[in-house]
Every structure is written in C-alpha cells, then in structure tokens.
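Journal club prep, notes for RB
We'll compare a predicted complex against what the paper describes. Inputs for the zinc ion case:
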Amino acid sequence: MSYFQKDYATARDHFLAAAEARGFRQLRLRAPAEESSELYVDFSMLKRNPKKLLLHISGLHGIEAYTGSAIQTKILKESLDAKLLAQGDHSILFIHGLNAFGMAFYRRTNANNVDLNRNFLKDKTKINPDYEKFHPFLSPSTPRAKYTSYFGFLFQLLGHGKERALQAIASGQNTHPDGLFYAGTSLQREILHVVEFLRQHFPLTEEAYVLDVHTGLGKRGKEFLFGDSDAASFATSCFQRSLDFPAAKTESYQSAGMFSEALRAALPKTNWHYFLQEFGTIGNFAVLRALREENFAWKNRFKDPRALTKAGDKLYLAFNPSDPTWQEASLALGLKRFMQLNQSLAASV
Ligand SMILES: [Zn+2]
C-alpha cells in the first residue's frame, strides 16, 4: 500500500492511526477556513525529557503535505518501535498538515492566500519591490492577459537573469493579496497555533532538532537540505553531507518572514537546529507555471469550477509526483534524515 494519499481526510486518518498505535498523544487545533469546519492541524506527541525535542513538520505549504504526511506515516509505522525509542529519552512531536486548508483544497497557501513560510514578518514595510514587475504575469487579471503577459515576463526574465528573477518572484511580497508568494499583512493563525502550542507544551526545551518537509523547489528528484549557516558543521556530522546553502542567507533563497523565525520567537532560549528538507519535483519553472495556473483558476473558481479542479490536480502532481521511483526515493530520504536527527538527539547530553 502506498503512503501517498490523494485527499486530506484519508491522509490524516492514516497518520493519526499510525501515531495512535505508537502511543503518541494527539491534540488538534481547528484550521481557520470558511470553506470547511473539519480541518485540523494535528499535533502528535510523545512527551519524555522536557529539555530535548525532535520536531517533524508536514504541510507548511498545503499541497506539499501529501509527501510530508507520507513520510510521517512511514516513520511512525516502520521505525518508531519500542527498541528504537529506548535509545533516547527525548520528546518527539509531529505536526501534521500545518496548512490544513491548503492541503485539503490543493493550494500551497492558506485560506487567506498567504504563504506561511513568508508570513513571520517583524514589521509591515514593503518587502521585495521587484515582485511588482512580475505580478502581471504571475497573477493575470483576465484570460486574455494570461497569454499577453508572457511577453512582459520574458522581457523581465532577460533583464534580471534567471536566478534574480526567481528571487524576485519567490522570496515573498506583501503588496498583492491575490498574487503568488504573498506574505500577508498580519500573522496567520496557523503560525500562532504553533507558537502557542510550543510555549504551552514544550516550554522547557533546551535543544530542538527540526525537520520541515517541503517539495517543489530545485532539480527533479534531488534532495536539498537547507539550514542556518551556523548549523553547517552539525549538519555534516549528523547527515554525513553538507547543506545545500544556508536557508536565509543566500541570494537564491533569501526570503522574508520564514517559519524558522517563528520557532525561535516561540522559545527564544532554546537552541534550535532547524532544517528544511526539500525534494525537487518537475523543475522550478514548471512548478511556477502550475502555481500560476492554479492561482488564476482559484480566483475564478465561482465562474469556472471545472478549471479549478483541473488546475488543482495538476498542482498536486507538480508537488507530489506519481512516479514510484520519485516517491520511494523521497520516502527513503525522509525517513533517513529523521532517523539521523533522532540518533543525534539521543546521543546528545
Ligand atoms: Zn514548501
């Protein structure tokens, strides 16, 4: 049986059953959405040593949750047996479907079209003014503009170069609520849920190791590991490989308001080792095309619901390829990195 599910409710059921079977305690918080009252962010935890925490997250970007959820269910079903748990005494927390709305409705963003990995902004000043030039292409206002805006886009692409263009597009913006990579203008409930949850349940954490699973960015089938530059040597010893580049400090992935900052703010005295694990799927520009198409269909969903279904299905596959080789490799690496962090934390004093 595949761990990859197609809908929110089934993926959630499988995850919860697996967590339950391992004796994890379940807490859920309702995800904010007008569209459905049955959406929850699930927190499954094994509370042991209150000073050490291993945190695994799926679905900060909703649609990417299907891969993250598959990995979490695999970890729970295949690895966390009594023998393995006896190796350490640290607490373990899985956050499942952090952006439950996006997971359920096949969107990367939440119900407010906010990209939750751009949302933790310290002030509301305008970020990334370069986005402006790409917006007419990324979020066309009419079906006709979908085609005509290509010319402007190519012009900007040539002017900026590929790397800088991607930076301008994907690093987050807070001027167009209908656009892509929208950071929002206020802190979203999903982020507040996590902050409040950590403060309430894990206030004494001294060491926290985090694996935050994503898909979509980067070359097809490749695994990327991002982390802070001060975690580089830790990463080498823990993962037996180097980080691809520091998450927040390079030209090509310099985003504002990243989720890791929210974790640090939640428990400022904790020593955080945050890693973002990303699996490349169909290439950056193909992913961008799928996002643009889905965003257009979403904006016009009441006029043309069938177009949204089609665009949503495409988006699912853009972030969760059906290719069994890709799925197996991603599951295996997802499990491997979790086990490596688990072992490091078990061995730490
Ligand atoms: Zn992501």
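Talking point for the session: The longest helix spans residues 324-347.
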